[in-house]
């Protein structure tokens, strides 16, 4: 049975997130984009509304939101500000390995922290020489008795400068390649863990991506999620689940740029008529609307599949690619429709364009998504 109507509960979730985006995010979005400061007051309110801990299950005291609900919220938050959205959404990414592979005790211990206070966690997979080729990681977690000794460097670690703990992927058996990696929860206060420099970025400047260095950092073996050697599979399963939230971010950023461009095209008079009267402009807006609607449906499909325990590697990669390419295309066209005004910082569309770019890169570049889609269709999926 297909039904594209939101239930009253889903509509209320979307409306609340939109209010938050309009009243809390939009008024400060430019400030945090300019300064790159950490937006503590915004995150406090996001936590009050349950957004930082949205995916924490009810048995751990959290709201236990579904991926469809998370997608509804993420679209609105990204509409509010692409950078602030990323900080909030990335908590879901960071805790998904625990949701997938953690024991009930591990879930209660680590996810419970997000319920007690506005706590951040950080997903820690990429390395300076292992980005798209995630299986080539060299960060090493060597087992010695009942401890792992961790050495190596991680990068592009979103929220890493403010995280209470990290879901770290490291090699526990370098002879086995990707099958020798494990996922280990590492608390921030572990001696030997040092947060490095933050990335100075083109867009999404309110979000925080850092290097994290490990020098003989010791954690108990009980912090491993699932079994040793399951790390790569946990990472891949995590990304299958979380790419819908990135796709939703693409829909939100695209919609923000489209709404401004539509309003502008209806009101900007040139040659005695609104510029919308020119098919050169109205067809651009029609294409924007078309791609945004398609992106949203793909996003909902990918999220719904996760909620229903259906393998969605192909659909989540398609949604992520389509929606974030849409965000880039729509925001670029919005700048074009606004002309010189679009290129100026007086309008939000230039920020949307900068924010959109990162969506095409993180949680797997859109080239890697095409690789995933190609592998899936080759296998007949
Ligand atoms: N679910 C479950 N298992 C999966 C899986 C998935 N979605 N994708 C791959 N696997 C399994 C494979 O079945 C294989 O298992 P076996 O060893 O039993 O055969 C194993 O994982 C290795 O898979 P594969 O051979 O496809 O790995 P590759 O090294 O070729 O890499 C890509 C695959 C490129 C898809 C992977 O490296 C990737 O996703 N890279 C991008 C990483 C990324 O998104 N980084 C951003 C981090 S967040 S900012």
Task: Summarize the structure in words.
The protein is of the alpha+beta class. It has 3 domains: 8-119, Acyl-CoA dehydrogenase/oxidase, N-terminal domain (Butyryl-Coa Dehydrogenase, subunit A, domain 1, Orthogonal Bundle); 122-228, Butyryl-CoA Dehydrogenase, subunit A, domain 2, CATH 2.40.110.10; 232-378, Butyryl-CoA Dehydrogenase, subunit A, domain 3. 54% of the residues lie in helices and 16% in strands. It contains 11 helices and 9 strands. It has a 4-stranded antiparallel β-sheet, with helices on one face. Bound molecules: coenzyme a persulfide.
Distance between the termini: 22 Å
Heterogens: coenzyme a persulfide
Unreliable segments (pLDDT under 50, ≥5 consecutive)? none
Beta fraction of the residues?
15-25%
Number of helices: 11
Reconstruct the topology from this structure.
Elements: H1 8-35, H2 40-48, H3 67-80, H4 82-101, H5 104-116, E1 120-124, E2 140-144, E3 147-158, E4 163-171, E5 181-187, E6 193-198, E7 209-220, H6 231-267, E8 269-270, E9 273-274, H7 279-307, H8 313-338, H9 340-343, H10 349-359, H11 366-378
Parallel strand pairs: 1-4
Antiparallel strand pairs: 2-3, 3-7, 4-5, 6-7, 8-9
Helix pairs in contact: 1-3, 3-4, 3-6, 3-7, 4-6, 6-7, 6-8, 6-10, 7-8, 8-10, 8-11
Question: In brief, what are we looking at here?
Answer:
It is built from eleven helices and nine strands. It has helices spanning 8-35, 40-48, 67-80, 82-101, 104-116, 231-267, 279-307, 313-338, 340-343, 349-359, 366-378; strands spanning 120-124, 140-144, 147-158, 163-171, 181-187, 193-198, 209-220, 269-270, 273-274.
